[in-house]
Amino acid sequence: MEIVVFGAGSIGSLLGGLLACVPDHDVTLVGREAHVDAVRQEGLRITGREAFTVRPDATTDGTGLAADLALVTVKAFDTESAARELRTGDFRAVCSLQNGMGNEDVLAGALDCPVLGGTTSYGAVREAPGEVTWNGAGDLVVGPWEPRDCDGVAGEVAEAFRAAEIDAERVDADGIRKRLWEKLAVNAAINPTTALARAENGALAAPPAADLVAPIAREVAATAQAVGVDLGEAETIEAVEAVVDATAENESSMCHDVRRGRRTEIDVINGYVVERAREAGIDVPTNRTLWTLIRAWEAGRGHGESSDDGDGDGDGDDDGDSDGA
Ligand SMILES: NC(=O)C1=CN([C@@H]2O[C@H](COP(=O)(O)OP(=O)(O)OC[C@H]3O[C@@H](n4cnc5c(N)ncnc54)[C@H](OP(=O)(O)O)[C@@H]3O)[C@@H](O)[C@H]2O)C=CC1
Ligand SMILES: CC(C)(CO)C(=O)C(=O)O
After folding, report:
1. What's the gap in Å between 179 CA and the centre of ligand 2?
2. In this structure, is residue 222 part of a structural domain?
3. Which of 53, 171, 196, 204 is the right S-S partner for 43, CB 3.0 to 4.6 Å?
4. Is residue 309 in some structural domain?
5. Same structural domain for residues 248 and 141?
6. Tens of pLDDT along 108-142?
7. CATH number at residue 186
């Protein structure tokens, strides 16, 4: 399968690198100059859970590309600009693997090809140009986002990942919406709380911080139900608690971003919950408080926080490199 990974930072480089190990896959990473140059010159170095170097194609120009599949792995606040570039290309399908809600709608509104929703609990951090650390394996779920001949291609995409020994599952349109809302609850509970506390995810495993999980999860579940997604309170709380336990020693991506003085994805996580709840006439005070606090931090960011973008090039500024989490 010909695959473009649009947004080769942390998770995009990891998944792109794993896919590039499959002889039948032809992978092109779309990323920023320092990373692309390093991949072109030295190959993409995967470290952490496994250590190997692989040589996908790489480019900084995401326009005019053609492939069977484009995976979208930019931060959510870059999805609109990514969609504009993807629109100049030719793809059988585009699949978001991003966190937060709204990415698939942005892509479906901009593109004529089938759009798939996706979520993954694989974990990666781009340490330096050309190098990404694989710090967590989990699952990857894809499904048709809207009825635009997605059914066949969703199964092909899941198979393409399984060929790379990535634990990928194909679900139907209702299934992917439920999985994305469940991941939204996980991110809504873990990301802003650990970011504000500058703590690892495991801080939420014990009281008093653990007492935050249920109210956040309940608010997300109630909002999901209000928009027609069958997400129960108990299962949502259990899902968050399970991820807290499974990633106890991890730093959430939002904590990573805050430590580095970088913009977060709060608007598509807790902000999305607040907006949908408002439309449904539901009060979600805990999500609103977290959204407000992270936005307040973003408004004044850089004061006293490291501005190191962590990409190892020592420049300490956000020069188009990113290290995500
Ligand atoms: N990292 C992880 O383990 C996981 C991440 N996710 C989600 O996946 C998404 C990506 O996360 P992550 O990989 O950490 O983020 P990163 O910031 O590490 O990667 C995104 C990369 O895309 C680049 N980029 C953005 N727009 C363009 C463009 N138009 N052309 C070329 N490159 C572009 C960014 O560069 P620049 O910063 O310079 O704009 C950055 O290098 C997020 O939604 C995240 O929540 C989900 C699960 C796990
Ligand atoms: C699941 C979790 C919370 C793992 O840290 C994550 O997706 C993130 O950090 O963005």
Report:
1. 14
2. yes
3. 53
4. no
5. no
6. 999 999 999 999 999 999 989 999 999 877 899 99
7. 1.10.1040.10
Q: What is the pLDDT of residue 312?
A: 41
Q: Is 156 inside any structural domain? A: yes
The count of structural domains within the chain is: 2
Establish if 310 belongs to a structural domain.
no
Together in a domain, 115 and 197: no
Pocket lining: 187 vs ligand 2, CB cutoff 6 Å: yes
Residue 310 Cβ < 6 Å to ligand 1: no
Tell me which residue has tokens 């170095």.
Answer: 45
Distance 260 CA to ligand 1 centre (A): 15
The pairs formed by 287-291 with CB atoms below 8 angstroms and a separation of 24 or more are: 287/188, 287/216, 287/219, 287/220, 290/188, 290/192, 290/193, 290/196, 290/216, 290/266, 291/192, 291/266, 291/267
Q: List pLDDT tens digits, range 198-236.
A: 999 999 999 999 999 999 999 999 999 999 999 999 999
Q: Could you list the residue range(s) of the whole structural domain that residue 185 is in?
A: 177-300
Q: What is the pLDDT of residues 2-38, one digit of tens each?
A: 999 999 999 999 999 999 999 999 999 999 999 999 9
CATH for 162: 3.40.50.720
The finding on whether 185 has its CB within 6 A of some atom of ligand 2 is no
Q: Does the complex come out with an ipTM higher than 0.90?
A: yes
Report the C-alpha gap between 135 and 33 in whole angstroms. Answer: 24
User: Residue 133 in 3-state DSSP?
Assistant: strand
Is the bond preceding 144 in cis, omega lying within 30 degrees of 0?
Answer: no
Same domain, 14 and 103: yes
Amino acid at 165: E
158 with 194, same domain: the answer is no
CA of 149 to the centre of ligand 2 (A): 31
Q: Which residues are catalytic?
A: 183
